[in-house]
Structures are given as structure tokens and as C-alpha cells.
Design goal:
The chain is mainly beta and 116 residues long. The chain has one domain: Jelly Rolls (Sandwich), CATH 2.60.120.10. Helix content is 9%, strand content 46%. The protein contains one helix and ten strands. The strands form three sheets. A five-stranded mixed β-sheet has the order 3-8-5-6-9, with helices on one face. A three-stranded mixed β-sheet has the order 4-7-10, with no helix packed on it. A two-stranded antiparallel ribbon has the order 1-2. The protein is globular, with a radius of gyration of 16 Å. The model has no long low-confidence stretch (mean pLDDT 86).
């Protein structure tokens, strides 16, 4: 379940509290390298599948929920590395947005453009 906070047992901590939040239903995690001035064209995914592109360097995330489309434009001079996460657990855009916002990411829907 998304954003289910879980407190780690006290015997694993020296002090304080650690809370763990997780995404369930992840089917694939890929590292994707996109050449300069290259585009992943607009597309969707089969029924029951969502995908999130995470671009750590710019702290950006592009979310594509079931039934929607997304695309990525690398409009920069550099090869861009993103983490692509696909899953089959049903999440709304709002739930995924809340999850990645907790990590301090700016969230986009549909189109993500990387520039210099």
C-alpha cells in the first residue's frame, strides 16, 4: 500500500524513530540513458500498468498512470540518466505525486523536458 508508514523496531535503532514508506506492486526498475536532443515519443502502457520516470539530478519525476500517456524530451547537450519504475498496483496520480513529493521531487504529468 502506498504511503503506509512503518516504524522500524526499537531493537534496530540507537535512538529516535525511522519511518519507512513504500510503493508496492513494482514490476520493473530500469536505468534509462537518453542521448542529447532525443525524445521518448508520447505513449501509454497496457491496462493496469503505471510508470514513473525519476530524474534525480534535477529532482524531477514524470508520472504516467493507467490510461494516460507520457513523453520525455532531452533538450540538452548531455546524456540524461533516468530511473524508470513500472508497477501494476493501482495508484492514483495524487497518491504517486504525494509519495515522490515526500522525497522533495517536482512532479510532472505527461511531458517532462530536460534542458541545460
Amino acid at each position: 500500500m502506498l504511503l503506509k508508514g512503518e516504524k522500524l523496531p526499537n531493537n534496530r535503532l540507537n535512538d529516535g524513530m525511522i519511518r519507512k514508506f513504500m510503493l508496492e506492486g513494482i514490476d520493473e526498475i530500469s536505468i534509462v540513458k537518453v542521448d542529447p536532443y532525443t525524445m521518448i515519443k508520447e505513449h501509454g502502457h497496457e491496462e493496469g500498468v503505471w510508470e514513473v520516470w525519476v530524474f534525480p539530478e534535477k529532482r524531477q519525476v514524470c508520472i504516467c498512470t493507467e490510461g494516460n500517456t507520457h513523453q520525455l524530451e532531452n533538450d540538452s547537450f548531455d546524456v540524461v540518466t533516468i530511473l524508470a519504475i513500472k508497477g501494476s498496483e493501482h495508484y492514483t496520480y495524487t497518491e504517486l505525486n504525494n509519495f515522490f513529493s515526500l522525497l522533495g521531487y517536482r512532479v510532472f504529468k505527461g511531458l517532462m523536458t530536460i534542458t541545460d
